[in-house]
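Why should sequence recovery work at all? Because a backbone constrains its sequence more than one might expect. Tight turns favour small or flexible residues, buried strands favour hydrophobic ones, and helices have their own preferences. The token representation captures these environments compactly. In the example below, the structure is given first.
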């Protein structure tokens, strides 16, 4: 069993600790801290998000600290709340304590003891709930004040839902906001991919279970007050995150026009915007149909987007003016030079484009689909030959076998192939055409390490979801699925972000248990999976179909 690791830092000695091992570490660290000791024991309180247990911290609190002290610590460190009048409450033994002047002035020793589990709720409109447990007592007291933060999870940024890089912002589409959808419907984006929106409500991603929190630099200064002596602002926030927060601090509270914030000088961005303006609805409808037929939505989206970007951006030609000669030229001249043109990409390019053209005509676009499809199919053999003979690509079999990177038939051949193409793209983008095995090996070995880390993230994502569901048997099934997929020759775990793969595996396990996808409607479980992993339903269903297909085929046993 792979342990569920939730990495963090001991704030006393600044060494890495996990959520599970933090308490034992803190016992020793507090004993050797030199902090004062009291006649009455202090409490070591573990706090984590009730819906998001990956956000956690440990607090040392004096026995006579008041609940109002814990309230202020939680507001400053996690809630980002600068409104002292914002609702908050403690729930202890089924009793709710709300009043600031009476309930929250009660000393901790009057209501809690070692082993006590209690809860905290913040905000009524967009509530955040956290769970607190007194995991131990100690004679050591906080050196300053009634409470002190002594350990905390690392700020691990989620992946951008478009490109997979580290995301810095959560953006909410104004249409969702205006229509009354939950403000938590936003997804994570890096700065470049924010151009996906014409306008959006934007917030930095905080190290907090409260996704609505919009931390500013002065909020970080308030949080610093609860850290042990010796911590400074430079320890809490990286230069990059400071830049993000300064950028966010200049934004209005309402939705902003991204065209005013970001330049569209980037040619690819401008071309994509031109294509989406005319055929965006057709692309979205086509992808929905692809998902319904079990096709790989991510691959189809990549192909159709590249196809339309060339037509609208380079040739500045709308869909009604596409002709056979133009499409043939794009196929055999423009698309062949794509450094990402893997065998799978090239093999599916024409079929996907043909299906898109047929769909566009079905929904009313005047495209003369029959003639265009015929032209693409006639040019397809030349296209595939040109891709295969591309001078930029080395012999993959030689690099895998003779290069010593992996044994043929080991089940990772295709993954290494993908890494080679990625390496080629990186090298070519820098203008370096002198490609050899030695130059690639270092890149690929580093990438294989990333693959292993990626697989661990997938397992952890599955297990954290199953912990919330309190279903160990489903967690065990998820681990079995990951093991089977790891040895499949197509290496499906590399074909999506970690949250997408985790969500798909959980979904398949839920289907096997009969709690998802049985009625043909969007079940509560499917909604729960999409919300938890922050993925679209179409992406979930598409990735789940890939998982089921690979499981049916079985691992590579040659």
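From this structural description, the recovered sequence reads:
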């Amino acid at each position: 069993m792979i342990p569920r690791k939730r990495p963090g830092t001991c704030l006393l000695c600044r060494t890495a600790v996990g959520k599970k091992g933090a308490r034992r570490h803190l016992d020793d660290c507090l004993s050797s801290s030199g902090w004062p000791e009291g006649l009455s024991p202090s409490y070591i309180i573990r706090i984590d998000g009730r819906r998001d247990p990956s956000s956690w911290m440990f607090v040392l609190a004096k026995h006579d600290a008041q609940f109002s002290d814990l309230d202020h610590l939680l507001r400053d460190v996690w809630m980002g709340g600068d409104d002292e009048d914002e609702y908050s409450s403690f729930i202890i033994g089924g009793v709710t304590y709300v009043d600031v002047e009476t309930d929250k002035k009660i000393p901790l020793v009057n209501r809690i003891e070692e082993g006590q589990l209690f809860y905290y709720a913040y905000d009524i409109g967009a509530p955040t709930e956290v769970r607190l447990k007194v995991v131990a007592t100690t004679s050591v007291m906080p050196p300053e004040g009634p409470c002190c933060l002594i350990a905390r999870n690392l700020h691990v940024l989620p992946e951008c839902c478009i490109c997979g890089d580290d995301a810095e912002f959560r953006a909410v589409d104004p249409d969702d906001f205006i229509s009354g959808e939950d403000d938590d419907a936003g997804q994570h984006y890096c700065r470049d991919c924010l151009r996906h929106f014409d306008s959006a409500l934007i917030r930095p991603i905080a190290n907090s279970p409260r996704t609505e929190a919009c931390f500013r630099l002065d909020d970080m200064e308030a949080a610093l007050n609860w850290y042990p002596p010796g911590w400074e602002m430079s320890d809490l926030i990286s230069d990059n995150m400071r830049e993000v927060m300064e950028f966010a601090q200049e934004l209005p509270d309402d939705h902003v026009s991204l065209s005013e914030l970001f330049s569209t000088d980037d040619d690819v961005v401008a071309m994509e915007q031109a294509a989406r303006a005319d055929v965006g609805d057709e692309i979205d409808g086509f992808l929905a149909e692809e998902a319904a037929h079990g096709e790989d939505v991510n691959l189809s989206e990549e192909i159709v987007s590249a196809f339309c970007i060339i037509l609208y951006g380079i040739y500045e030609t709308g869909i009604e003016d596409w002709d056979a000669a133009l499409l043939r030229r794009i196929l055999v001249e423009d698309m062949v030079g794509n450094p990402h043109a893997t065998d799978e990409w090239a093999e599916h390019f024409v079929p996907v484009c043909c299906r898109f053209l047929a769909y566009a005509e079905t929904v009313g676009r005047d495209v003369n689909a029959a003639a265009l499809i015929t032209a693409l199919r006639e040019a397809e053999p030349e296209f595939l030959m040109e891709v295969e003979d591309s001078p930029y690509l080395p012999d993959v079999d030689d690099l895998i076998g003779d290069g010593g990177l992996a044994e043929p038939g080991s089940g990772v051949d295709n993954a290494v192939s993908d890494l080679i193409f990625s390496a080629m793209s990186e090298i070519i983008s820098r203008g370096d055409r002198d490609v050899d095995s030695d130059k690639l090996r270092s890149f690929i070995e580093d990438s294989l390490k990333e693959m292993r880390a990626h697989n661990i993230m997938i397992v952890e994502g599955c297990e954290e979801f199953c912990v919330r569901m309190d279903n160990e048997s489903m967690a065990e099934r998820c681990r079995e699925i990951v093991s089977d997929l790891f040895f499949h020759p197509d290496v499906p775990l590399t074909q999506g972000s970690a949250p997408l793969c985790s969500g798909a595996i959980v979904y398949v396990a839920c289907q096997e248990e009969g709690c998802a996808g049985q009625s043909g409607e969007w079940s509560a479980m499917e909604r729960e999976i999409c919300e938890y992993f922050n993925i679209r339903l179409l992406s979930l269903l598409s990735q789940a179909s890939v998982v089921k297909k690979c499981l049916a085929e079985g691992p590579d046993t040659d």
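A few observations help interpret the result. The radius of gyration is 27 Å.
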